[in-house]
Amino acid sequence: xxxxxxxxxxxxxxxxxxxxxxxxxxxxxxxxxxxxxxxxxxxxxxxxxxxxxxxxxxxxxxxxxxxxxxxxxxxxxxxxxxxxxxxxxxxxxxxxxxxxxxxxxxxxxxxxxxxxxxxxxxxxxxxxxxxxxxxxxxxxxxxxxxxxxxxxxxxxxxxxxxxxxxxxxxxxxxxxxxxxxxxxxxxxxxxxxxxxxxxxxxxxxxxxxxxxxxxxxxxxxxxxx
Amino acid sequence: xxxxxxxxxxxxxxxxxxxxxxxxxxxxxxxxxxxxxxxxxxxxxxxxxxxxxxxxxxxxxxxxxxxxxxxxxxxxxxxxxxxxxxxxxxxxxxxxxxxxxxxxxxxxxxxxxxxxxxxxxxxxxxxxxxxxxxxxxxxxxxxxxxxxxxxxxxxxxxxxxxxxxxxxxxxxxxxxxxxxxxxxxxxxxxxxxxxxxxxxxxxxxxxxxxxxxxxxxxxxx
Lengths: 225, 221
What we know:
- The structure holds 2 protein chains of 2 kinds.
- Helix content of chain A is about 80%, strand content about 0%.
- Chain A is built from 9 helices and no strands.
- Chain B has 6 helices and no strands.
- Chain B starts with a helix and ends with a helix.
- Chains A and B meet through helix 6, helix 7, helix 8 and helix 9 of A and helix 4 and helix 5 of B.
């Protein structure tokens, strides 16, 4: 069984499962929308500085509901004994990891697609300015979040405190990711000088590549029984 | 072996007393900040140990994953425990110095922020170890965190530095150069702290090792 075939199969399995139960997406979606709405109480009505905080709030919504989604997604894997079964299969275990990472990535992306228009309505802030660059930032940021998030959700689900460990482990580590995403999107949304965003986008890309490589190297050893 | 350990301990104690002398008596008084500035020698040394200890955890974690020799897990764990103590010292002595020197307890400058995040990564590492029961999983998972966490630290530093240069109202730490006597005092303090670290590590690793032996005996019974 080829490496990429394995990844594809796991993604397919997860999407099929999700289409039936819709558990992961639903919990993420509701929570993201709630975050967007609750955070709007930070502002005075009609405040002009809203636009400076726009990207930040969007990413807070993505991160917090993303953590919820990651937890749910991994709990599904573990409760059925599915993860253990997968690990018995004669394939490179890191393929399983990346399969899960990409399916998490797809789910979170889907949540973003629905949350962003709602966010646009409530905050009156458009991503249409530099739309392509905004999309690139979302892709890079969400991928980095998924890759580290999946690693730590596997680790945390096997600990005594279960889901609680995930944010504790994940949040400090994704600070550069969150910072870079917010800084880039602020530039794009406010229509400022795009050249300023290049270093942030490079940071995002570098972050994604570095951690993909590192986890590819160590995952087999980490998950060994 | 025992003699070497005892000598290291003794050396650590002596060096510490020497470092105190160097910091308070040998090094000149700083004109602007006065006595408060002398925290610098212990603050910087603690920071050196905090980051070095995490580096040791990183290297140990890698070696452990490759060799499966639990001694390296002992080393990783011990270094993390000692590291967080020194990291806490940095985060406490920093603000104590900062308030009289800069007029504020805290500022989001790259070094402080990175140290704060390092502290949280340490906490995560130690919590993870506390909350995983099976010794095999505990060692492997902490190793993963030790590796990913350490690689992240320079990325965090870089990102915060870029962030801060957009908003340049950051106060620079310790303006111009150091007086040569101060450099010497700092050097002595660094060596003293390093010996302290080694001395603590030896004891802590021994403790881990024995704990493991007890655990495996318990399972046996």
